[in-house]
Design a protein that fits this description.
The protein has a twelve-stranded antiparallel barrel. Strands 1-11 form a two-stranded antiparallel ribbon. The chain has helices at 3-49, 196-200, 232-237, and strands at residues 57-58, 64-85, 88-97, 101-110, 113-120, 125-134, 137-148, 152-159, 162-169, 176-188, 205-206, 210-225, 241-262, 265-290, 307-317, 323-336, 339-354, 357-373. Helix content is 16%, strand content 61%. The radius of gyration is 29 Å and the shape is elongated. The chain is an alpha+beta fold and 374 residues long. β16 (323-336) and β17 (339-354) form a beta hairpin.
Length: 374
């Protein structure tokens, strides 16, 4: 065998060795993947039923659930600003909402780990939700988008010395876009006998009435945007504020109770006052440029069409201010065989503000679904 043949033979053996090693590595990876999936499944099963008393809480035999869902959501934004201009002196308020948006969607879950999506039917927007829960804890998240083009504007104060209290609704050229994100988590102290999951997921069934002290934490983010140059009048009313971003983090302690008046039926109520420890607001304030033909000093009245919005918005960040908020829920679930129907309502309110501009975001939702275990 000459050197050329020896080299080719050696390279062939090396290639075969590398191919065999690669195939062995792929086989190991394939083995690891089912092990990882099995570990995740085992954790989901164990965390859902950990420490529960079977005399109070039932574990359905079937792990998967699928639901057809509908939600009625009313999200309202109230903005207030102190006004002292063009003869007006007092408090000017702008309110907007999603007009009780109704959505239709679907959700799927394995045990207490689920995902859902719904589309708003009577307007523009959507709701996306996630849940990761165990027998003694629950973590939920949701993102909501909606638009509103008919705010209500009211004024209470004086105009040229005369008392005024007026309110009107007007359609604006570009909709106000609102995007909110909730992330809330709860720790259940009496998870042995009380099941949060039995009221707010279909993964467990409460057999006997029980209650529990609950600790909670919540993160809230809201972005309101109406900065379009077509909304000059709206921006003028809000003294140039055209976009608002709010970030809040709250903690609280409350109480929840599951009442079981009949077999398969669970009625839950939960109330939790919350203390907002992190509270930051960004206000984007825009300038106005006069584009009218008549000099400002010669104008007899204010004409919004003579102004246009300019600039990218000067950002004002508010200092942190501790506030008191509230988280409340009520739910009802009925289980029979492998089917279930459930409904729950939730209410939240968040306050924010800086200097002469303040606001409040209020949100309530009523959720209903019918589903099956499989």
């Amino acid at each position: 065998m000459n050197m050329k043949h020896l080299f080719i033979y050696t390279m062939a053996l090396l290639m075969l060795s590398m191919t065999a090693a690669a195939q062995e590595n792929q086989t190991k990876q394939k083995r690891k993947l089912p092990k990882l999936i099995q570990w995740v499944k085992d954790y989901m099963d164990y965390s859902t039923v950990k420490g529960i008393d079977s005399a109070y809480i039932d574990v359905p035999e079937k792990e998967w659930t699928a639901e057809l869902t509908t939600t009625v959501n009313h999200a309202s934004l109230k903005l207030e600003t102190d006004w002292n201009f063009a003869g007006l002196e007092g408090l000017l308020t702008a309110k907007t909402s999603n007009n009780a948006a109704t959505s239709l969607g679907a959700a799927i879950a394995y045990r207490s780990y689920g995902i859902g999506y719904s589309k708003i039917l009577n307007g523009e927007g959507s709701i996306f939700s996630l849940s990761f829960s165990g027998s003694n804890y629950a973590i939920n998240g949701s993102i909501t988008n909606y638009s509103s083009d008919t705010p209500t504007v009211s004024f209470k104060g004086k105009f040229e010395g005369e008392t005024m209290d007026e309110s009107t609704s007007a359609k604006i050229d570009e909709p106000i876009n609102v995007r909110t994100m909730f992330i809330d988590g709860y720790y259940i102290f009496n998870s042995k006998r009380f099941s949060y999951l039995a009221a707010y997921t279909p993964s467990l069934i409460q057999r006997r009435s029980a209650g529990s002290l609950i600790a909670g934490a919540m993160y809230f983010h809201a972005r309101t945007n109406y900065e379009s140059s077509n909304n000059t009048a709206m921006l003028f009313v809000m003294q140039g504020v055209g976009k608002i971003k709010v970030d809040q983090a709250s903690i609280g302690v409350g109480y929840a109770y599951n009442w079981v008046p009949a077999r398969g039926l669970v009625i839950n109520i939960m109330a939790m006052p919350m203390l907002t420890l992190y509270n930051r607001t960004k206000l984007y304030r825009y300038e106005f440029e006069y584009i009218g033909d008549v000099p400002i000093e010669e104008q007899e009245s204010l004409d919004i069409d003579d102004y246009k919005v300019v600039g990218d918005g000067d950002v004002t960040k508010t200092p942190n201010k501790v506030r008191v908020n509230f988280d409340g829920r009520i739910a009802a679930v009925y289980n029979w065989k492998n089917w279930f129907v459930r409904t729950y309502g939730q209410f939240n309110t968040f306050k924010f503000g800086h200097e002469n501009t303040s606001g409040r975001f209020s949100n309530w939702s009523v959720y209903a679904s019918i589903g099956r275990r499989f």
